[in-house]
C-alpha cells in the first residue's frame, strides 16, 4: 500500500509525495509540524501541510539565500537570521569565517528542537559557538532590538499564519533601521512561476525601503512551480557581484561565483511581472 503526502499548490493543482514513514508530528503553539521519510525527497519537513524543506533539495534554497548576500557584503561580521527554524540557513552562514556573531530568531522553538533531533544534515550550525538562537517573535525583535547588523536574512514561511507579518512594509522598514552603514537584507520572496503577483508586491515593498533592490532566482523542485525567488535590499554594494568565493573544503552543491552572476539573469516575462525596468 502506498501512502502519499499531498500539498495543494494552486486551486485544482496538488503535489503528492510518497512517504515511507512518519518520523515526527506535533501541534505546536503556532502550526502543525510534521517530519516524514519519503521515497523521492528523503527526509522532509512540513508546516501546516506545506513542504518547507527536503533532504534532496534543501541545499538549493539554503545556499542561494545565504551565500549571495554574504559574499556580496564587504565584511559581514554580524548577521541576523529571522526564521529558519530548520537550521539550513544558519548552517550555510556559519561557513563564512568573517562572521563573528550570528543571531537567529524564530518564533517556534518546537520546530528548532525537532530540527536538532531529526534533521542531522541541516542542524550543524546550532552548535557553532558564534551562533545565538532566540525563541522570539522576529517582528518584535527587529522592532525593539538595540543591536546593529551587517546582513539580515529572512528565512520565513509563506505569507500566511505566523509568517505573514514578515512580508509587510513595516517589517522591511524596521530591518532598515537595524542595519549598519552599507548593510544588506535578503529575503525569500516566493514563486515567480506560481505566484508572480506576490513576488511583485514583495519586491516593490523592499525597493521602496532600499536604494538598491535586486531580485534573483534559483531552482527548488519541491516548491510551487519548481523555481523560487529571493530579493536583496542594500544600503551599500550591488549584490550582483561577489567579493569572495567559497573554499573548496565547503563542498557546496549549488553556489559558486559563476552561479552568483547567473542567478540575477531574469527572463523578460518575470521582469514585466515584477515591474523591473532595464
Quickly list its features.
5-stranded antiparallel β-sheet; Rossmann fold; 8 helices; single chain; Spermidine Synthase, Chain: A, domain 2; 32% strand; 27% helix; 278 residues
What does the model show?
The protein has 2 domains: 3-54, Spermidine synthase, tetramerisation domain (Spermidine Synthase, Chain: A, domain 2), CATH 2.30.140.10; 58-274, Rossmann fold (3-Layer(aba) Sandwich), CATH 3.40.50. The protein is 27% helix and 32% strand. It is built from 8 helices and 12 strands. It has helices at residues 58-72, 88-93, 109-118, 138-144, 169-178, 196-209, 257-262, 268-274; strands spanning 3-10, 13-27, 32-38, 43-47, 50-54, 78-83, 101-106, 131-135, 149-155, 179-188, 212-219, 227-234. The strands form 2 sheets. The protein has a 7-stranded mixed beta sheet with strand order 8-7-6-9-10-12-11, with helices on both faces. Strands 1-2-3-4-5 form a 5-stranded antiparallel beta sheet. Helix 5 (169-178) runs parallel beside helix 6 (196-209). The relative contact order is 0.14. The mean pLDDT is 95.
Topology:
Elements: E1 3-10, E2 13-27, E3 32-38, E4 43-47, E5 50-54, H1 58-72, E6 78-83, H2 88-93, E7 101-106, H3 109-118, E8 131-135, H4 138-144, E9 149-155, H5 169-178, E10 179-188, H6 196-209, E11 212-219, E12 227-234, H7 257-262, H8 268-274
Parallel strand pairs: 6-7, 6-9, 7-8, 9-10
Antiparallel strand pairs: 1-2, 2-3, 3-4, 4-5, 10-12, 11-12
Helix pairs in contact: 5-6
CATH architecture of the largest domain: 3-Layer(aba) Sandwich
Which homologous superfamily in CATH is the superfamily of the largest domain? Vaccinia Virus protein VP39
Tell me roughly what share of residues is in helical segments.
25-40%
Give the N-terminus to C-terminus distance in angstroms. 53 Å
What's the overall geometry?
A: globular
How many strand elements?
Answer: 12
**Which range does the strand content fall in?**
25-35%
**CATH topology tier name of the largest domain:** Rossmann fold
Estimate nothing, just give the exact number of structural domains: 2
Uncertain residue ranges: none
The DSSP helix count reads 8
CA-atom Rg in angstroms: 18 Å
What number is the mean pLDDT? 95
Largest sheet: 7 strands, mixed
CATH class of the largest domain: Alpha Beta
The strands making up the biggest β-sheet line up spatially as 8-7-6-9-10-12-11
The helix-and-strand class reads: alpha/beta
What order do the SSEs take from the amino end to the carboxyl end, as H and E?
A: EEEEEHEHEHEHEHEHEEHH
Amino acid at each position: 500500500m502506498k501512502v502519499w503526502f499531498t500539498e495543494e499548490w494552486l486551486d485544482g493543482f496538488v503535489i503528492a509525495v510518497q512517504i515511507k514513514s512518519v518520523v515526527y508530528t506535533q501541534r505546536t503553539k503556532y502550526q502543525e509540524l510534521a517530519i516524514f521519510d519519503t521515497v523521492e525527497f528523503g527526509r522532509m519537513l512540513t508546516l501546516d501541510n506545506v513542504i518547507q524543506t527536503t533532504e534532496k533539495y534543501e541545499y538549493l534554497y539554503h545556499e542561494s539565500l545565504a551565500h549571495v548576500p554574504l559574499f556580496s557584503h564587504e565584511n559581514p561580521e554580524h548577521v541576523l537570521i529571522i526564521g529558519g527554524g530548520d537550521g539550513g540557513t544558519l548552517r550555510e552562514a556559519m561557513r563564512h569565517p568573517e562572521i563573528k556573531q550570528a543571531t537567529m530568531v524564530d518564533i517556534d522553538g518546537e520546530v528548532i528542537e525537532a530540527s536538532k533531533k531529526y534533521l542531522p544534515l541541516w542542524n550543524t550550525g546550532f552548535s557553532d559557538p558564534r551562533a545565538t538562537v532566540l525563541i522570539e517573535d522576529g517582528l518584535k525583535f527587529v522592532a525593539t532590538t538595540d543591536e546593529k547588523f551587517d546582513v539580515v536574512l529572512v528565512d520565513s514561511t509563506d505569507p500566511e499564519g505566523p509568517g505573514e507579518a514578515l512580508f509587510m512594509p513595516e517589517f522591511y522598514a524596521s530591518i532598515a533601521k537595524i542595519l549598519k552603514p552599507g548593510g544588506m537584507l535578503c529575503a525569500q520572496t516566493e514563486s515567480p512561476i506560481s505566484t508572480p503577483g506576490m513576488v511583485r508586491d514583495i519586491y516593490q515593498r523592499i525597493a521602496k525601503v532600499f536604494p538598491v533592490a535586486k531580485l534573483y532566482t534559483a531552482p527548488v523542485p519541491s516548491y510551487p512551480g519548481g523555481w523560487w525567488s529571493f530579493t536583496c535590499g542594500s544600503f551599500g554594494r550591488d549584490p550582483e557581484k561577489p567579493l569572495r568565493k567559497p573554499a573548496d573544503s565547503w563542498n557546496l552543491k549549488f553556489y559558486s561565483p559563476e552561479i552568483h552572476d547567473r542567478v540575477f539573469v531574469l527572463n523578460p516575462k518575470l521582469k514585466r511581472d515584477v515591474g523591473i525596468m532595464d
